[in-house]
Amino acid sequence: MQNLEPTEFIKLKQFKDECWIDDASILDMDYFINTLSNIKGKQLRPELIASVITHYASKWLPELAGDEPNRAIARIDDLPESVTSSWMKKRFFIETLVGILPPEMDSIPCNFLLRLLRVAKMVLVEYVYLDELEKRISRQLDQASLKELLVPSFSHTSTTLFDVELVLRLVKRFMNMEEVARSGAAVMKVAKLVDHYLAEVAVDSCLNVTEFIALARALPSHARGTDDGLYRAIDTYLKAHSSLSKQDRKTLCYLIDSRKLSQEASLHAAQNERLPVRAVIQILLSEQTKLNKHIDWSGSLSGTRSPAGVGLEAPTRCFSKREMTVQQIEIKRLKEDVLRLQSQCMAMERQLGKLLEKKRGLFVSWKKIGISTFKAHRNGEVEDDDVGMKSPLEMKTRLLRGRTPNRRKSLS
């Protein structure tokens, strides 16, 4: 009200005096819809018209009010009618409400549209109105909240608790808009929202890995300034789906860019038994590389430039002795983790070697006791190998044959 111009304030006051003398004037739904339809002819700003629509729509349907105080003056559920009649009235009310929304896409708050979409899907509104709501929501998805984005799945064919396919459609539509290319901040907000959404729905045992990966990949890699939220979502999914195959675990870990993990997330991943060993080693190596670059920057400040620090800009401030001590302790811990993982890998290689030796144990025992082995040729014939039980005379004869070549004696 404070931002209204004098002419708009006068029009709004006249509009209220004409249309809403008291709250009882909108008890009749038909009168309410007709009144809302006449709003567009008052030449008011779209944002003001939208605020009037959302206010009185929340009066009719408390589900649209959100966290606002619920002081409904007329509720469809309170009318003395059957459940089917109430259901049909809600459906008619939402379809009519979508039809009279201002054409400006950003005039209605995104959270109100998400609540409207939730009720619309619940009462099975026509696809045309659902598509219009999704189009409006996708244009301002960066303004949505996680609570309103958790729309339940009302489809009989879906087994998940929340409508993940709906969020995937919204994100894809958002990324296909031309305005997204000019607004990197909006893309980063949506990426953060999607990571929080994935962490919430990851606990659903019916959510398959294909849907999870599709939603995570709906945003480009540059949309995430950090992968901590994505790592948290993947870790939650692995915890809730303990029977996941090794290949699926690897595919999920491929989504994480180890270079974009914070130090806390890297340390957590180093001790995470749910991650594949290869992914843990990659994260540790990436963290060690970042720490080495940090040390090179610190060395360049003291006047000793290392080859690795050539061409890199120095930090904007000098680090204190305490900070350097803490960093060196973290480096020592990371090196210990790398050594521990290397020792585990060597132990696994030794175990594999022992298994191979057991498989070859039969042949080794044959060599020790002197049993002759056989060698098969391509033509199917089999002959004795050089290794076997031979008499001393036979061995001497073989050695002489190998040293002296066969020469023809001269007849002269």
Strand order of the largest sheet: 1-2
Structural class: mainly alpha
Number of helices: 17
Helix content: 55-70%
On the 0 to 100 scale, the average pLDDT is: 75
Q: What coarse outline follows from CA principal-axis ratios?
A: elongated
* Separation, N- and C-terminal Cα atoms: 132 Å
Element order, helices and strands? HHHHHHHHHHHHHHHHEEH
Largest sheet: 2 strands, antiparallel
What is the strand content? Answer: under 5%
Which stretches are poorly predicted, pLDDT < 50 over at least 5 residues?
17-26, 69-74, 302-316, 370-389, 407-412
Question: What is the CA-atom radius of gyration, in angstroms?
Answer: 37 Å
- Let me know the number of strands: 2
List the keywords.
mainly alpha; NPH3_dom; NPH3/RPT2-like; 412 residues; NPH3 domain-containing protein; disordered C terminus; two-stranded antiparallel ribbon; single chain
Textual characterization of the structure:
- The model is unreliable at 17-26, 69-74, 302-316, 370-389 and 407-412 (pLDDT under 50).
- Among the domains are: 1-72 and 82-139, no CATH class; 144-256.
- It has a two-stranded antiparallel ribbon.
- β1 and β2 form a beta hairpin.
- 58% of the residues lie in helices and 1% in strands.
- The longest helix has 39 residues, at 321-359.
- It has helices at residues 6-19, 29-37, 46-60, 83-99, 110-122, 127-139, 146-149, 164-175, 184-201, 209-216, 228-240, 246-254, 263-270, 277-301, 321-359, 361-369, 392-403; strands spanning 374-376, 382-384.
- The chain has 412 residues and is mainly alpha-helical.
- The chain contains 17 helices and two strands.
- α9 (184-201) packs parallel to α11 (228-240).
